[in-house]
Amino acid sequence: PFLVLMLSLVPLIPDRFKPNIKEDVDRVVDQTLTGPAAQAVKDQAHGVLDRPTAITWAFVFGLVLTIWAASGGMAMTMSALDKAYDIDPAKARPYIKQRLVAIGLTLVTATLILVVMVLLPLGTSVLKWLSSQGRIFGWLTLLINIVRYAMAVVLLLGVLALIYHFGPSFRQRFHAVTPGAVFCVAVWLLLGVAFRIYLTKLGGAESYAKTYGAVAGAAILLLFFYIDALVLLVGAEINSEIDFTVLGIPSGQTPQPQATAVTDSASKPEQQELARELLAKRSEDEPSGAVATASPDPSVNRCDPEGQRNQARRR
To answer: Which of 123, 171, 232, 237 could share a disulfide with 148, CB 3.0–4.6 Å?
Structure first.
């Protein structure tokens, strides 16, 4: 969805800048992808850049449709995040509200990812310019590389923070860095290196070309995006398990009716409120009779073991 959205904005670029943009696109793609996947992206980008610059009502209408279609991927991600938090689909966001949030997240994350994609080749261009001016030093090269990659990682963490915060259908405190986001970025980086080695050194690109022929590039891209999406959801599961532990909510099952005990176990008032809201949005698979039977006697002190044993005998 991000690539479709970015390519739809190409008609806004003046024609005199397009030759330089082609070179920049080729450089960015070559640094990110390889083999048939890189060629597929470059061919598509060149085809769009070769179109004349024109802004018409048809373009505006097409741009709106593109944004709506691109937000569909984000909406599906939000539904998957609800499953990570065991939220009942009937208690999730209404369709229109979910789609509006998805559109906002798509635009914001697309902008941040675009900045990440620009930072890496921009650092290379700066290093080449300094080298041509005779002003490059060993420590300066190291510093520029550290800064640009650190900024790229920070922006990726920001993208994941927005997705993990606004994605699930319940209110939660904003955290700029979460364990799931750190895991996701680390695995993304490792997967990128491993995937590139597989395609270039282990003959993966040739294998895909033999199997898929002309669509090998698209197949490689889809596999890469699928693995990245899977890692994103694993990061969400990590965050949800940690949140369940902090809020005192049993995960992996429908919470039993000891909601008062669960929310009272949270150490802070805001945690108690979040626990109550999350409990209210999770599914209720137990029949009402079982709920009434399993409800603890409020007269029994939970800290009194003898009282708890007597209550168990009465059940």
So the answer is: 123
